[in-house]
User: What shape does this take?
Amino acid sequence: MGDSKIDISLLKAERRLKIIFFYIFILVPIVFMVSCKQEKADISEKGSYFDLKAVVEDDIAYNTKNACAELKQVMVNSIQERKFIANVDWYKELQAILESDINKPAWKGKFLVDTIMGDLSGQYTIQYSAISDKINIKLLKVSFVNGHLEKIYILKQIQSFIFASNQTIEYFPKKGFKVSGEQRAVMMKKFDLNVEVNYSCK
Assistant: This one.
Protein backbone atom coordinates (compact mmCIF):
# COMPACT_ATOMS: atom_id res chain seq x y z
CA MET A 1 0.00 0.00 0.00
CA GLY A 2 2.79 2.43 0.92
CA ASP A 3 4.60 1.93 -2.37
CA SER A 4 1.41 2.39 -4.38
CA LYS A 5 0.70 5.71 -2.64
CA ILE A 6 4.22 6.90 -3.46
CA ASP A 7 3.78 5.82 -7.09
CA ILE A 8 0.48 7.73 -7.34
CA SER A 9 2.06 10.85 -5.83
CA LEU A 10 4.96 10.66 -8.28
CA LEU A 11 2.58 10.30 -11.21
CA LYS A 12 0.58 13.32 -10.05
CA ALA A 13 3.75 15.38 -9.66
CA GLU A 14 4.95 14.34 -13.12
CA ARG A 15 1.57 15.25 -14.63
CA ARG A 16 1.69 18.68 -13.00
CA LEU A 17 5.16 19.32 -14.40
CA LYS A 18 4.03 18.32 -17.90
CA ILE A 19 1.12 20.78 -17.64
CA ILE A 20 3.46 23.58 -16.54
CA PHE A 21 5.96 22.90 -19.31
CA PHE A 22 3.07 22.92 -21.78
CA TYR A 23 2.18 26.43 -20.65
CA ILE A 24 5.81 27.62 -20.65
CA PHE A 25 6.91 26.32 -24.03
CA ILE A 26 3.70 25.82 -26.05
CA LEU A 27 0.66 27.79 -24.91
CA VAL A 28 2.42 30.97 -23.78
CA PRO A 29 4.29 31.40 -27.09
CA ILE A 30 1.01 30.72 -28.98
CA VAL A 31 -0.78 33.36 -26.89
CA PHE A 32 1.98 35.85 -27.64
CA MET A 33 2.11 35.05 -31.37
CA VAL A 34 -1.65 35.35 -31.83
CA SER A 35 -1.75 38.60 -29.88
CA CYS A 36 0.97 39.93 -32.17
CA LYS A 37 -1.12 39.11 -35.25
CA GLN A 38 -4.21 40.95 -34.02
CA GLU A 39 -3.01 44.13 -35.73
CA LYS A 40 -1.23 43.68 -39.06
CA ALA A 41 -0.59 47.37 -39.71
CA ASP A 42 3.00 48.37 -40.46
CA ILE A 43 4.85 49.74 -37.43
CA SER A 44 8.04 50.65 -39.25
CA GLU A 45 6.92 54.22 -39.83
CA LYS A 46 8.12 56.71 -37.23
CA GLY A 47 5.09 57.87 -35.27
CA SER A 48 4.15 60.59 -32.86
CA TYR A 49 3.76 58.37 -29.79
CA PHE A 50 6.42 56.87 -27.52
CA ASP A 51 8.80 54.68 -29.54
CA LEU A 52 8.40 51.36 -27.73
CA LYS A 53 9.76 49.50 -30.76
CA ALA A 54 13.17 51.19 -30.45
CA VAL A 55 13.43 50.34 -26.75
CA VAL A 56 12.60 46.66 -27.28
CA GLU A 57 14.92 46.35 -30.27
CA ASP A 58 17.73 47.74 -28.13
CA ASP A 59 17.08 45.01 -25.53
CA ILE A 60 16.98 42.34 -28.24
CA ALA A 61 20.28 43.51 -29.70
CA TYR A 62 22.01 43.80 -26.31
CA ASN A 63 20.75 40.47 -24.98
CA THR A 64 21.67 38.66 -28.19
CA LYS A 65 25.14 40.20 -28.41
CA ASN A 66 25.89 39.36 -24.77
CA ALA A 67 24.36 35.86 -24.90
CA CYS A 68 22.01 36.69 -22.05
CA ALA A 69 20.12 33.84 -20.43
CA GLU A 70 16.85 34.14 -18.53
CA LEU A 71 15.13 32.93 -15.41
CA LYS A 72 11.50 32.25 -16.32
CA GLN A 73 8.77 31.67 -13.76
CA VAL A 74 5.30 30.57 -14.82
CA MET A 75 2.27 30.22 -12.57
CA VAL A 76 -0.99 28.75 -13.84
CA ASN A 77 -3.59 29.10 -11.11
CA SER A 78 -1.77 27.55 -8.13
CA ILE A 79 0.77 25.57 -10.15
CA GLN A 80 4.18 27.22 -10.35
CA GLU A 81 7.44 26.34 -12.06
CA ARG A 82 10.79 28.06 -12.52
CA LYS A 83 13.32 27.32 -15.22
CA PHE A 84 16.71 28.75 -16.14
CA ILE A 85 17.05 28.99 -19.93
CA ALA A 86 20.58 29.48 -21.24
CA ASN A 87 19.86 29.80 -24.97
CA VAL A 88 17.13 32.35 -25.66
CA ASP A 89 15.77 33.61 -28.95
CA TRP A 90 15.33 37.18 -27.75
CA TYR A 91 13.34 38.31 -30.74
CA LYS A 92 10.71 35.65 -30.07
CA GLU A 93 10.83 36.20 -26.32
CA LEU A 94 10.22 39.94 -26.62
CA GLN A 95 8.01 39.86 -29.70
CA ALA A 96 4.77 40.39 -27.77
CA ILE A 97 6.19 43.60 -26.29
CA LEU A 98 7.72 44.67 -29.60
CA GLU A 99 4.35 44.34 -31.33
CA SER A 100 2.69 46.42 -28.59
CA ASP A 101 4.14 49.59 -30.10
CA ILE A 102 1.22 51.94 -30.80
CA ASN A 103 2.92 53.86 -33.62
CA LYS A 104 0.82 52.18 -36.31
CA PRO A 105 -0.51 54.35 -39.16
CA ALA A 106 -4.03 53.01 -38.59
CA TRP A 107 -3.86 54.05 -34.94
CA LYS A 108 -2.76 57.64 -35.50
CA GLY A 109 -4.98 59.97 -33.47
CA LYS A 110 -6.63 57.02 -31.67
CA PHE A 111 -4.99 57.62 -28.28
CA LEU A 112 -5.44 60.31 -25.67
CA VAL A 113 -2.09 61.43 -24.26
CA ASP A 114 -1.62 62.67 -20.71
CA THR A 115 1.37 63.38 -18.48
CA ILE A 116 1.00 62.44 -14.81
CA MET A 117 3.49 63.78 -12.29
CA GLY A 118 4.73 61.44 -9.57
CA ASP A 119 4.90 61.98 -5.82
CA LEU A 120 8.66 62.51 -5.85
CA SER A 121 10.68 65.09 -7.75
CA GLY A 122 11.70 63.85 -11.18
CA GLN A 123 9.00 61.18 -11.41
CA TYR A 124 6.43 61.34 -14.19
CA THR A 125 4.41 59.02 -16.43
CA ILE A 126 3.22 59.54 -19.98
CA GLN A 127 -0.11 57.77 -20.44
CA TYR A 128 -1.69 56.73 -23.76
CA SER A 129 -5.36 55.67 -23.56
CA ALA A 130 -7.12 54.12 -26.57
CA ILE A 131 -10.33 55.81 -27.69
CA SER A 132 -11.33 53.05 -30.13
CA ASP A 133 -12.83 49.69 -29.17
CA LYS A 134 -11.10 48.12 -32.18
CA ILE A 135 -7.64 48.65 -30.66
CA ASN A 136 -6.49 45.74 -28.48
CA ILE A 137 -3.92 47.83 -26.61
CA LYS A 138 -6.15 49.79 -24.28
CA LEU A 139 -3.49 51.52 -22.21
CA LEU A 140 0.23 52.24 -22.43
CA LYS A 141 2.03 53.95 -19.55
CA VAL A 142 5.68 54.97 -19.75
CA SER A 143 7.29 55.92 -16.44
CA PHE A 144 10.46 57.99 -15.99
CA VAL A 145 12.63 58.99 -13.03
CA ASN A 146 14.94 61.96 -13.58
CA GLY A 147 14.66 61.46 -17.32
CA HIS A 148 15.56 57.76 -17.11
CA LEU A 149 13.08 55.18 -18.45
CA GLU A 150 12.06 52.93 -15.56
CA LYS A 151 8.98 50.96 -16.55
CA ILE A 152 6.45 50.43 -19.32
CA TYR A 153 2.96 49.18 -18.53
CA ILE A 154 0.70 47.72 -21.24
CA LEU A 155 -2.94 46.66 -20.95
CA LYS A 156 -4.28 44.39 -23.70
CA GLN A 157 -7.67 42.90 -24.38
CA ILE A 158 -7.46 40.14 -26.96
CA GLN A 159 -10.09 38.11 -28.79
CA SER A 160 -9.35 35.34 -31.28
CA PHE A 161 -10.56 31.91 -32.38
CA ILE A 162 -7.95 30.34 -30.07
CA PHE A 163 -8.47 32.32 -26.88
CA ALA A 164 -9.75 35.44 -25.18
CA SER A 165 -7.88 37.31 -22.49
CA ASN A 166 -7.32 40.40 -20.45
CA GLN A 167 -3.56 40.77 -20.25
CA THR A 168 -1.14 43.17 -18.61
CA ILE A 169 2.56 43.51 -19.33
CA GLU A 170 5.05 45.24 -17.06
CA TYR A 171 8.28 45.78 -18.97
CA PHE A 172 11.51 46.83 -17.30
CA PRO A 173 14.05 47.62 -20.04
CA LYS A 174 17.47 45.99 -19.48
CA LYS A 175 15.98 43.88 -16.68
CA GLY A 176 12.97 41.77 -17.69
CA PHE A 177 9.19 41.72 -17.81
CA LYS A 178 6.02 40.35 -16.24
CA VAL A 179 2.85 39.17 -17.95
CA SER A 180 -0.37 38.42 -16.11
CA GLY A 181 -3.99 37.91 -17.01
CA GLU A 182 -7.05 35.77 -17.29
CA GLN A 183 -7.09 33.42 -20.27
CA ARG A 184 -9.81 31.42 -21.99
CA ALA A 185 -8.47 28.89 -24.45
CA VAL A 186 -10.23 26.44 -26.75
CA MET A 187 -10.81 23.04 -25.10
CA MET A 188 -9.50 24.37 -21.78
CA LYS A 189 -10.99 25.85 -18.65
CA LYS A 190 -10.51 29.48 -17.68
CA PHE A 191 -7.20 29.99 -15.91
CA ASP A 192 -5.00 32.70 -14.45
CA LEU A 193 -1.61 32.98 -16.08
CA ASN A 194 1.41 34.79 -14.67
CA VAL A 195 4.83 34.86 -16.34
CA GLU A 196 7.93 36.57 -15.00
CA VAL A 197 11.22 36.77 -16.90
CA ASN A 198 14.46 38.16 -15.51
CA TYR A 199 17.46 38.69 -17.75
CA SER A 200 20.72 37.02 -16.76
CA CYS A 201 23.56 38.63 -18.70
CA LYS A 202 27.27 37.95 -18.42
In short: The radius of gyration is 19 Å. The chain has four helices and nine strands.
